[in-house]
Fold these 2 entries.
Entry 1:
Amino acid sequence: MINPTAHTTDITTMHDNVSIYLERISDFARLLRTRGLAVGLSETADAALLLSETDFTDRERVKNTLRALFAKSQAEQEIFDRSFDLYFVTAEQKKAIEEAERAAREEYEKQKAAAKKDLTYNGQPMDLDESMRETYMRMPEEVRERLRQIKDRFKDDIERSPELYASFIKSVFMKSIMEQQLAMEDAAAQAEAFDDPELEMLFRDISDFHESDIPKATALIGRLGKMLNGEIQAKNAGSGHKGKLDFKRTIRKGLETGGSLYRLAYKRRHKRRKKLVLLCDVSGSMIQFSAFALEFIQSLSTISEASRTFIFSEELAEIDRAALVNTETFRKQVKATGLFGRGTNLASALSQLLALKPPVLNGSTMLIILSDTKTVNVKETEQLLAGAKRLSGNIIWLNPIPERKWDYVRSIGRISGICQMIPCSTLSDLSRAVLRIAM
Amino acid sequence: MISENELRAGLDRAAYVYDDILISTVLVALKLGRPILIEGAAGVGKTEVAKVLAEVLERPLIRLQCYEGLDESKALYEWNYQKQLLAIQVSMNRKEDTDDDLTRSLFSDEYLLERPLLASIRSEEPAVLLIDEIDKADEEFEAFLLELLSEMQITIPEIGTVKSKTTPLVILTSNRARPLSEALRRRCAYLYLAYPSVEKELAILTRKMPNIDAQLALSVAEAVHTLRANDAILKKPSIAETLDWAAALEALGITELDRDALEQTKGFVLKNNEDLDEIHTLLPEGDCGEDCDCGGHGEAGHDQSHCAHHGHHHHA
């Protein structure tokens, strides 16, 4: 991993900076690659050519030129701009960075010494790995103070059962440290915020949307849906020439050329798409996600036909297609069923679904479950899911819990063995998942 | 190759409002012989870039409009079958030519219908090739285009390989109706066009319509900016619609964007029935946009049922 601040390049005057850009260009290209930009050797060579042959008068011009070459989408432009500004800095910026780095190093050493003291119990260092020690150092002072107080409170009991108390204190510390690690991961995800509000919304956790964001998110879904429709239609159109010969069209076309059958026309081979059965969790924590996910799925004209939608919390209910027109009508109908905000019992919902006559699931259906897996009766749920899988062949689970947190939710590990689980915490994830379903 | 100053001067002459990013991208594309991929919402002026560059570079503009199902015969070349059949019949009657001569003549330039891609490759002088709305074409066509753009030559089985005589400046535009392949993106210099800021839109208005009233131009630019920011509006006004609207206002002798002016000319800027209902958001608070004495939506205690009685609606 390249640390951009460790490689900041001082740009003082334009006279000598072109040579600096040239020297650093391949390293900068490598940094962009680590950030997900597909910068190949040809781009780097072209950039070097431009830098050596163009008379640049200011830093901004260099930035614009390299951006046109290296960034190939709006999102990549954002990443490029941030990387460039961090990598090629002016003399003043470099001085400020060095000063800040020196202060940070001093602070780090101080915190390290304090943490070493805190993470010692009964004269022995606690058995914690380096990353946990690092996390402890970054914890808020009030949390560390609380942990110190707990340690002090049991100081006198240590002699009674040294092993028991050492293990207890360690578990208390570990719990707090792991919570802090999760919080830091969330903060890191949010720090990836984009300058463009639309892009930011695309990558924000759906559960973090406020009421005021909903119209914007809905409009974004509409646009994404259009884009996905275009992609799916283009894919389908591509498979056009593989069907049987279309005699009618061939003869009609032949008439244009005096009856000679120059160009043959083929029937399009229609891929038989599976009918979707959607099972949406509408317990309190899930309604926002389900509403967006359903709106997304409905926005795809290619897959919305012939799908059936069920909602569940403790019971199961089928939702009218008309209610899926927008988020508002969906919410109203969910509230009318009385299922909103209750606990989650997927086992009960699945058993009701499987008992429906005529059977909902069969070989030409695909079951899609939108839920966070936080259900009661996990064992029974597993058995019923296995039964549903036997009937429909494939179950796709769209999970709004970010993938990085899956290790901490036990039920996810158990259920993901039965279903194909796809992370869908953001609209971007959701669009990718829905595309996979549609294809 | 055109210098930066010449490019700027040319764009100024063409009354085109540009920024440094556009200049850098065009220079990169010209220097490296790469296509320019322009993305952005509909109506931000992507096609206009190609038109104005053709004018500035004094090159012919060759345009290929993409659509679903576009294939090589519509984009590259096609044999003129009808003309070939007639030639065969004429030749059969004359019985002078041998079969070989006939075949050779049937597949010559005379019977070749040149489509935009071939026209740009065979052009004696370098052209600007605009491949408009590439996102609407199929993936197969995109792959074919990729091959063509990298080799700048094509093989016509009956004629042989046609190498480009000059390198056209290729401009691809996309409304992002579907994502383009990584391979095509990599080959291009990329330019993203967003809707212009109020200042830039004002500059466009005054550049394209030098005689427009300064206050009216500012009002129009601000109004369009407000409309674009309104999430309830489905079809955002394009720059061309801004110009049309300003021209309509000017033609009607209107200098102030008041309720009547908006009512008369709203069809120039909003093109959707539902969107037209949103025009009232441009009115100052206290003016609900309808002929009633309701006091306006800006006033506390505004009785919306009263307005409904008059046959209009208020929006949140």
Entry 2:
Amino acid sequence: MSTDRKDQHSDLEEMGRDMSTTMTDTAMPETTAPSRLGGTALTLAYDGRTVAEDLSVAIPDRSFTVIVGPNACGKSTLLRALSRLLKPKAGTVVLDGTDIATLPTKQVARIVGLLPQTSIAPDGITVADLVSRGRHPHQGLLRQWSRQDEQIVAESMAATGVTDLADRAVDELSGGQRQRVWTAMVLAQQTPLLLLDEPTTYLDIAHQVDILDLCARLHEDEGRTLVAVLHDLNQAARYATHLIVLCDGRVAACGRPEEIVTAELVHQVFGLTCRVIEDPESGTPLVVPGARRRSGA
Amino acid sequence: MRVLRGAALSVRYRPRAVTATAVFAVVAFAAVVLTLGSGDYRIAPAEVLRTLFGGGTVADHFIVVQLRLPRVVTALLVGAALALAGAVFQSLVRNPLGSPDMLGFTEGAATGALVVVVAGGSSAALACGAVAGGVATGIGVYVLAWRRGVHGYRLILAGIGVSAILSGVNGYLLTKAQLMDATRALLWITGSLDGRAWADAVPLAIAMAVLVPVVLITCSRALHVMEMGDDTAAALGVSVERVRLTALVAAVLLTSFAAAAAGPVSFVALTSPQLAKRLTRAPGPNLIPSMLLGAVLMTCADLAAQHAIPGRQLPVGVVTGVLGGGYLMWLLATGRKAGRI
């Protein structure tokens, strides 16, 4: 039994290494890029309800990968699996060539950061205190707060523009400010890979753009690999360097937004009739839903 | 927030929390000295101190160290153990109502003790029964609440359900007991420190010597992070289920041993962590301040129980119950004002 598993494991490792090439033939025309994080032949299920079967994805290094798809297509589930919060029923999530489930959780937390959809700010906690908790995977019983911790927390708050809020209580802040604070917390974790589960939900459009600009800056300036689940296809097309379109637990398309976002794809995945034009601001694809035909008009 | 740094060591602390904790320790000690000096044979505090540190007359020594000290030490330990268990539970379920007395563990300890009483067992057997009952209830609630991990609300609901069933069972057991036994059992269920000897304090002291370091070293930092949600904690590298299991086991054992020593004293576990949080103004489980505040509440309640009604001693559980109920009302009133309830 144990040798079986070992064989399977090395097989999967092999697959993980070869993934970029095998995927080239099928769904990923562009990605021959190296990938530290990916999933092979994943079956993902909640309470016996299977969300995805035989799902394989690779996150290209130093990309801003955005996962989009209709409601309940398995976007967030995939992100949870990639961050080892959900154990796949079959298949492996591979981080740096190793099955993520076999790695110590603290070690994973130094490589992969995650901003979940819902986090709880403890009663009365200040911004600085919350952000400092992002240092947890780097701390120990005797090493609770080094100078390095202090410096990184300050930098994270500066990068997200929350330095002025440092002594405010998190529960007094507005939604947009709060999201920046949580982003600062995962930044303080200092992981080369950062996963964000719907970071723009509950924010108005200005704050959505604000957070996405921040993400883009983190990606460009610091060479981080970002993976975000987003609802808005146009925002995804504008910000992503690599887009993964999920539909019913399968990858419907993936690659650069300019190359894969077409009216046919949107119709196939979302069942929406639309036109895809060039975004006058960024030159990326812009999905314009077809107008409703009014009776009598 | 201040930091102490050495070569390979850095410790963060909040000055206010440290001050508050020191004050709790002083108050607890003062209550201990007062309690040791009070009773039918009064001894001045200065004499009590002298006796405690090896001086004093033979008579004083006999009264203070032999007769009264076991009771006071039991009160200190029970208060600290219950408060620590309460702080751990409230942090785990992220709810101020999530204390062992609400979740049925103290009821379970009472059931275990009552079974022994009905069977006509000794005091030592009664304590063993209490520990066994508390632990069995802990396992039962955990199994009932388990579904891909144990989550706060399910744990509270399962605990309240089990607690209701057990209080019915306890009532039934009381009617089955002999009259003398039933009286003894009733006193135990209220929570009482009367006639406590070293034999009552020692098992609890041993349990705490093991469990308190386990909780403080392996769970304290993880509990801080787990207050931000299981997903966030897991993403920050905490083995959420393992920490939760360790903390639950430790807290159930602390509660059970405390109940074995003094009966299921109510409300100390519920109120101490919340009061500690308000006094230290620190987020997080406040484990050490809660523990000391629990010791303060328990010793002060015992002092009040001995003197509230002249010439008559009350069981300490009556005092903690009245204080705790009042506190709960206050929490409700202030919560309503703040629009939270």
